[in-house]
Amino acid sequence: MKIHQILTGLAPLLIFVKALPNTPGPAGRACPVPQAGECMKPMTADGKKTIYSYANCGQLFCDTAADGGGWIIFQRRTFKDVYFNKTWNEFKNGFGTYCTDFWLGLETISQMTNQNDYQLRIDMQKGSNINYAVYNTFKVAPASQKYKLTIGDYSGNAGNDFISHNNAMFSTKDMDNDGSVDDNCAQFFNAGWWFTDCFSDNLNGDFLNSDWGMGVIWAPLMPDLEGSLDWVEMKMRKK
């Protein structure tokens, strides 16, 4: 199935939760914490609605269908138009556009997951196979702790190698927190990620790059670490 066909099929299931009419992408720094419950409200006829609690900051992109809906999408890889080898500040504040690929921003993710208990869902496709992984515990620590990742309690059919990234700090090409003595994993693999000398999974890799370890990698689906996922979304939901 072609990527554009996938997106066309998903279109009725995904909604913009808008705060500012001309905001092109993810939120900037110092935003008030969004109200995650907005993603659980029924869709309007045109699939859009306003949340004033997120004013002056941007938008949330919600999945209202998967496992009952209510998911805030914070990462999406569907095209090759947004490069994910960004700086620390870019990953902190967010980048990309909801029309294609984006990263919501570590600061927003951290604020939300430290205010309430969240779970993580990752939907992905490789070839004709569509898989998912759910972690019933999901938390990203504040910047003072280098946005350390906490995940736990896996379910799904995609495999659970991501648990090896539990307690990893986030790294970028200009901020090396990966624990590797010899390498800057983010610099070597051209991506900001929760690297751990260096990785089992890397969903921020170079999209559709078929070289070893350089693509968008979910190791259980590509044990030789060659190739790339065709499509992936990371999303979180308040428990």
Largest sheet: 10 strands, mixed
Shape-level CATH architecture:
Alpha-Beta Complex
Q: Which strand-content bin applies to the residues?
A: 25-35%
**What is the element string, with H for helices and E for strands?**
HEEEEHEEHEEEHEEE
Instruction: Return the structural class.
Output: alpha+beta
Taken together, the total number of domains comes to 1
Question: What's the CATH first level?
Answer: Alpha Beta
Percent helix? 10-25%
Distance between the termini: 33 Å
Describe the global form.
Answer: globular
Q: Could you give me the name of the CATH homologous superfamily?
A: Gamma Fibrinogen, chain A, domain 1
Reported by name, the CATH topology is Gamma Fibrinogen, Chain A, domain 1
Count of DSSP-assigned helices: 4
Number of strands: 12
